[in-house]
Amino acid sequence: MSILLRGGTLVDGTGAAATPGDVLVVGDRVAQVGRVDEVPADCRVLDCAGLVVSPGFIDPHTHDDAAVLRPGALDGKLAQGVTTVVVGNCGIGLPPVRLIPGQAPPPPLNLLGTAAAFAYPDYPSYLQALREAALQVNVAVLGGHSALRVACCADWHKPASRHEIDAMAARLDEGLACGLAGFSTGLAYPTAIAAPTAEVTALARVSARRHKPFAIHLRDEYDGVWDALTEAFEIARDSQAFLLLSHQKTAGPRQRGRARELLDRIDDAARDLPLALDAYPYDAGSTVLDAESVRQSREVLVTWSVPHPELAGRTLSEAATALNLPLDLAIPALQPAGAAYFHMDPADVRQILTHPRCMVGSDGLPEDTCPHPRLFGAFARFLGTWVRDLQLVGLPEAVRKVTSLPAEVFALSDRGVLRAGARADVAVWSRTEFADRATWTHPRQLAVGMRWVLVNGCVAWSPRGSGEAGGQVVGG
Ligand SMILES: [Zn+2]
Prior knowledge:
- The chain has helices at about 75-80, 125-130, 145-150, 160-175, 195-210, 225-240, 260-270, 290-295, 315-325, 325-335, 345-355, 375-390, 395-400, 405-410; strands at about 1-10, 20-25, 30-35, 45, 50-55, 55-60, 80-85, 140-145, 180-185, 215, 245, 275-280, 285-290, 300-305, 335-340, 360, 425-430, 450-455, 460, 465.
- By secondary structure, it is α/β, with parallel strands linked by helices.
- Strand 1 (about 1-10) and strand 2 form a beta hairpin.
- Helix 3 (about 145-150) crosses helix 4 (about 160-175) and helix 9 (about 315-325) packs across helix 10 (about 325-335).
- The protein starts with a strand and ends in a 10-residue tail after the last strand.
- The mean pLDDT is about 95.
- Zinc ion (ZN) binds near residues 90, 246 and 247.
């Protein structure tokens, strides 16, 4: 089976200037890039005149851990040109958590769903389930620190004992041996905040030994971000792991306008530390509902609530009014719950996301009742509003940030670049039409302008919608 993408504008993912040309795909590989004169017999020809042909996009920061196993659940990503997602971020993951009957997953693990989603007692069983599933996109899996702590520690409110660290390291190493793409932590969360730096370093070292990265959601994303960054650098230095700073931001009223200073700190560290960062093109974050994030935000939206599902999509003040409670009592009344926090400055977000080491990571939360629009919009908003309309970065550099840069970070050596011999993950899109449609009130609206998406040579997206499931487990 071969497919000829004829007459497009090729943006190859390396950062090189766009060139007119064709791309020939044979089986799951790119066979030829440039001018293709000899068309194989029974080759399907797609007319790409007026369209950009680029590598498929890699979303390095997702919480699609359960969603990737549900048919059709990744349509919102395919409509944005995403061909690979990295799951297991922020220390949050399904394996190797085992819950006792009736036990709810503790926050933030509950961002991935209810107890029923936690059906994998170890990494091999989850990776096997992925390999047997009809995956719409490629999936790379990080082993999550909080998931390991909940599985291996008698009391995760305390630092892990030597014995518990050994147990977590053994679980993680077993996972890395059979296909995990790295290790992640989220030290701001209740399930991990008790972990001392040395505990994280011990686990990051397990990842480093297998030449895999270490992703960190910092211990503090507000006023303590500076010390938290120092801790991340220390862990990376001591463990020798490639450092990935997750959803990097300056947040809260007192850190407003300090993105340049933050990036200077990161650039300083990068002189002797291999590192990258990810961010999403919005001035609001989203995670579980917590009082400190509420205090740091100018506006808060409820994204889900178990006792009050009807309040999802309302502001926290509206929810409090509906419950007839003051704000500080509405927070516990809504739990377990999630929220979106307007706590960033748009200029800071732009500065961070346009940094050459920064990738676009959606950080979307597909299980939320009313998710942050980044889930369905991050890539379209970046390439549409930011790159085409505002021209914050040029097109070749923008495409590099969503293709070869994440491919390098996760060592996906045959993806992220359009070249002969690479895996055929390809996005074909209209530069003028590509736009996000997801809003705060209608967050699950598909992006528009993506014409065809190939995943390992399979037509995963076309003007008719989703098609073949060609995804594989990658990054192991
Ligand atoms: Zn996070």
